[in-house]
Amino acid sequence: QVQLVESGGGLVQPGGSLRLSCATSGFPFQFYAINWYRRAPGKERELVATITASGHATNYPDSVKSRFTVSRDNANNAAHLQMNNLKFEDTAVYYCNAGVNWGQGTRVTVSS
């Protein structure tokens, strides 16, 4: 069956970095754009990164641009989200998405 499994979340201080991973199986990963979303407590879900199926194009909202970098490894059916210079407002559960398929999320907490 289709699976997307996020990992790499945790507790980090402001200014720190985390690298999230999304391991996938059960669908043709190389044909799907990958999106990373987050949902902060009390807020709407927010799209924070997109990478095309080929990996040749990416997109970010202004809130994370220049701090977050999305990448993918089509040979291993995985995607990654490198997050640098983390801020308090980056605290959220982060989800990997491909088409109608979603992971369970990984929690990121930015706190001093």
Overview of this structure, please?
By secondary structure, this protein is mainly β. The chain has strands spanning 3-7, 10-12, 18-25, 34-39, 45-51, 58-59, 68-73, 78-83, 92-98, 101-102, 106-110. Strands 2, 4, 5, 6, 9, 10 and 11 form a seven-stranded mixed sheet that branches. The radius of gyration is 13 Å and the shape is globular. The model has no long low-confidence stretch (mean pLDDT 97).
The share of residues in extended strands comes to over 45%
N-to-C terminal Cα separation, in Å?
Answer: 40 Å
The major beta sheet can be summarized as: 7 strands, mixed
- Give, in order, the helices and strands: EEEEEEEEEEE
Inertia-based shape: globular
Helix content: under 10%
What is the C-alpha radius of gyration, as a whole number of Å?
A: 13 Å
Mean pLDDT: 97
Please tally the helical runs, counting DSSP H or I stretches of 4 or more residues.
0
Structural class: mainly beta
Which oligomeric form is depicted?
A: single chain
**Poorly predicted residue ranges:** none
- Number of DSSP E strands: 11
